Amino acid sequence: MKFIKYISILLFILTTSIASSQVKFEAKASKQKLGINERLRIDFEMNQDGDNFNPPSFSNFTVVGGPNQSVSNSWINGKRTYKKTYSYFLAPKKRGDFTITQASITIDGETYKTLPLKIEVTAAVDKPKDPNDPNFIASENIHLVAEVSKTDPYLNEAITVVYKLYVSPTIAVDNWNEIDSPRYNDFWSQNINTQGQKVQNGTYEGEDYRYLVLRKTVLYPQKIGKLNIEPLSLDIAMRVPSNRRDIFGSRLMTRVNRTISAGNKTINVKPLPETGKPIDFTGAVGDFNFNVSTSKSVLDASESLQLKVEVSGNGNLKLFKLPKISLPSSLEVYEPEHKENVNTTSSGMQGNISDNYTVVPQYKGKYPIQSISFSYFDLKTKSYKRLTSDDILIDVSNGPLNNTNANKTGAISNAGKQPVVLNNDQFAFIKTTSNFTRIKPTFFFKTNLFWSLLLFPFLAIPLAIVIRNKKATRDADVYGNRIRKADRLAKKYLKGAKKSLGQKEAFYIALEKALHNYLKAKLHIETNDLSKDKINNLLKKKQVDEQPINDFISILESCELARYTPIDIVTMQEDYDKAAKAISLIDKQAR
């Protein structure tokens, strides 16, 4: 009997486990890897009907279709087969590795969940065209093209990439959204402002089209060899003609969403020739002028003058160093102030850069400043050129003479020196006897100091407990600590700017430097190749709100404009407070 009892229990357990295993609820993806211009289908399938279906959030995707619900119910050889499916069609928002989290449903009072799905989104890929697909018309009548000005530039030679959107007159574009921006690895890049561009008429592959210039970017390659320019990808909402017609015989329009890409571009960067390369060549490429000048040539000792080393023209002005000057030791020289007045257009950088030295002579005399030279690679002649400055003579008319130069022979004169005379009273001031007195001994035991030191540890224990409790409370205040840390960070970076309040140029240079140094520390990047668009995108990826980002970029723009407009100290204080608030908010919100 016991054996039969055990068998019954075992059969019951097996029956229960089989019954529970019959419930299936799983998520299936149409593909695990897709391009940013492709679509993804996610199916949530169950073999029993359920309630309270909760889909994932799809935070990194845009739901372009669904949920579509389908039910399949069949009988085969007396056995019922049931399947219910919820389907979603997704478009990725950006590149990266993402996880589609769990969906849940309630079946017979039990909650079931799917397993997470790993999805990899890559750069745009070429997709086959399906003539029967409504998107086929759109694919044949709208094109995003990247036009590269030169495919075989020299190292540090400017090239321009222009992105144009060509649209056939037969379709209408409602709106578009940039979903993937090119990452110009191995290039120095600068976007050119294209706001206000108008739609123009043109041709694409021999057919009439309308086109709009969406973006212009100037690139300076920083490596030789084959470099890849990644594609720009857009999500476009448009209306295309369908096969249906209205009662008047006109074609009806169908709304279509389509992701298009400009495609990858490859350029072959040539190295600069080694033949004739100067030893002091620092990488300047373009067409330049070179000049060394002083604010004055005649002055008095301790009076300052400004010495400027300047390069102007067209080329990679921000990507090389200016030559250093060599001055006589009698001229005190301070670290130079670097200035850039550079405008980036479709043809590259234009303007001038300079190092401004403050020089203060100490002694009267005439001081020659020897000429210095600057070398660069000329793209027109494809050869190296050297420019040399003129000699400059500084005449210090009034001031003390340099005594080190008075005796040009280097001899030391003994005139006027007296012999040393020794006498017997020479050491008479040294005492040979002492006046020591006996000091009365003192005792430490039972003195006030003794009792104070004895009782101090007992009094310090409650104080230490109170301090530790306050520290624990402060450490537990995560939000408060984050606020205090952010405020300290803002004060740290803006310390230099605060010292220069009231001095317009010095203040805004220090403020701009503080903002860039903060970005370097926060984003772990170099900021000399960052545009405002990139700053905006990087901070958004850190989950920073729109308002602090706009304030930060606004302050950067103020720093640029302040050099050319009159600014009072009230405006400077407002910009300082705005910068401190922006840094503090960004540091609190950034993840």
From TrEMBL:
<keyword id="KW-1133">Transmembrane helix</keyword>
<keyword id="KW-0812">Transmembrane</keyword>
<dbReference type="InterPro" id="IPR025738">
    <property type="entry name" value="BatD"/>
</dbReference>
<dbReference type="Pfam" id="PF13584">
    <property type="entry name" value="BatD"/>
</dbReference>
<feature type="transmembrane region" description="Helical">
    <location>
        <begin position="449"/>
        <end position="467"/>
    </location>
</feature>
<protein>
    <submittedName>
        <fullName>BatD family protein</fullName>
    </submittedName>
</protein>
<keyword id="KW-0732">Signal</keyword>
<feature type="signal peptide">
    <location>
        <begin position="1"/>
        <end position="21"/>
    </location>
</feature>
<keyword id="KW-0472">Membrane</keyword>
